Write the structure tokens for this entry.
Amino acid sequence: MLSTFTQKVAGAIAFICYLLNTIFWLIPIVIFSLLKSIIPFETAQRILNHLLDGCASNWVSVNGITQQLIGNPNIQVNGAEGLSLNKWYMVISNHQSWVDILVLQRVLNGKIPFLKFFLKKELIWVPFLGLAWWALDFPFMKRYSKKFLAKNPHMRGKDIETTKKACAKFKHKPVSVMNFVEGTRFTQHKHSQQASTFSHLLKPKAGGVAFALDAMNGQLDTLVNVTIYYPQGIPTFWAFISGQVQQIQVQITTQEINPHYIGDYLNDKTFQTHFQQWINALWISKDLELEELKQTQLND
């Protein structure tokens, strides 16, 4: 374990590396994105999409090199065999920390098409990254509370329209659409507020996955289900980049998405119930998996 002073130095160096790497790749990403917006030809659009995803993958690869040089956590990955760059995937995962994104990018980069995350609309204002996410066609979502929709019924369904519009861009090139089903990061406070029936997870929100599957009309035909476990406890971003995280365990399972799980989640109550039951079953299995990982750690 690094000393406190060494951790601070390592973290500062890593942060500068991440920042410079982001700025370096942001420049061509924005240029290619602007060209894509003004060149209407399909062939040019296809080429520019490949260039954009190539830049993004290189950005992730260089971040991975930084992680290996500074801290180099031992990331144990099970189940990544058989993944392909030529398929359309729906990727789901538990969510505990900003570190989850770095872990997912590192373990899946080069194995599946570049991850496109569903992001809260407010994140577009994150310096540098917000611009990069916009240029890479990440779906930005504006979620409305039930109270807001009760006062503004004309806004009902707007989030679905946004999802479908975003996903329409993914139909012509293999993509991995990433959704944190819990909708927010796990904390004990949120867990208690929800009165979650899961030991290690918040309640799953099935709508985002259902809307994406419906918008892609069957093209997202394989589910990549990722479980991330931090044996030392949930880390902060700073703890990760400063070398304090020694071990991470990642379990990956894949399954074909049954066409029965593609439908009108908003208006078909029977389908909504059926779909929510499917997601709940996945979450029950994930909760058991996390408990098994915890018990294995305690017994070692």
